[in-house]
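Give me structure tokens for this 446-residue protein.
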Amino acid sequence: MNLLKKFKAYINQHQLFNPKDKLLLAVSGGVDSVVLCHLCHQAGYNFEIAHCNFQLRGEESNRDENYVKDLAAKYHVPIHCKTFNTTEEAKLRKTSIEETARDLRYEWFNEIQNSKLITQNSFILTGHHANDNIETVLMNFFRGTGIKGIRGILPKQGKIIRPLLFAKGSEIEHFAAENKLTFVTDGTNANSDYTRNYFRNELIPGIQKIYPQVEENLQNNIDRFTDAEVLYNQALGLHKTKLCELKGSELHIPVLKLAKTKPLHTIVYEIVKDFGFTALQTSNIINLLDAESGKYIQSTTHRIIRNRKWLIISPKNTFEAATILIEQNDNTISYENGKLEFNKSNKLSIHQSPSTISLDASKLLISLLLRKWKQGDYFYPLGMKHKKKLSRFFIDNKISILEKENIWVLETNKKILWVIGMRIDERFKITENTKEVLEISFTAKN
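Here you go.
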């Protein structure tokens, strides 16, 4: 079967797009993207061309852009070009040149997707082929990855389509020679200082000396890993459904149920990775299962807090969170209902009003927890020796259903010390033995 027939068969097999859909081809001018253009032209598909000039190779970069413009003229199709200052952008982002160029490329593709050019029946095609996929899998494997990394590049991800993944580089080069296609060559391809080039020029040829069929074997493995990922995600979805309870912007996970789950390390990581936590933090998160209430682990965007019988994944942005950790050096906390201000003093002045309270600081742990009240909560109202459930306390104080929905509490070590805006707990009041006072002021949101 010739390459054109394989190309069409692969598109049909994976239902990548329909023959009448509008296509935007990412064309560098190299052999892979030039062959992609010619195949789409032979197949009669409706396409346009996009080209990125990363300004990394001096005149070569400009040469490539001019070549691609000529290619668009040859096929009588529209072309879109964009120039990037990749070196400066890499410095700003503190990422490698390779990573920066890739990110800039796909960011621009996303812009195009959101423009008038891309509609519901439009897709962006890249010239990635089987060897690119093999290199990607090996790079992911050696840098450390999950099953997603070792299954490689998917033929379709959203509106990005890679219809040449079935073809090896040698097949593509043979097709170009057969059809007398001209193309440009990236002079940096021979430079093994770049990670991908090292795998392409050094590592894989070295392995082929021992295992001549390594490319075919890896491609077969990729197919198996792709199927395995489907099964993996199905099983993971069942675990998440059983374990995770979404409450507003927070995820609540029962500690006892999670502790009995196997394989624990993998399931914990798969749950928390979407909240900015890394694989290296997984063991510390598992340690929270045996930690006391109030302990936590944090990422750049979220905290995982041990709160009684639950692990709570909560945004660090306090306006979004319903469970907020307050540490010793926090002077002000702004949240959904308003603002709390904290001030320690050696003066034994006593304030007990709906908006300002005074507590014995020695009876508080280092961290406090600010959260919405829930059924089953209780405290010892100031002046009382017996505990009272908050639900009964609200009834006695004629608090409406709507008002109850907006009541928050402040707790330490599983003990509620203040029903905010209402009353403190008897156990935390100032006595004649108090040496340090914590004054907390509440300002309601306007």
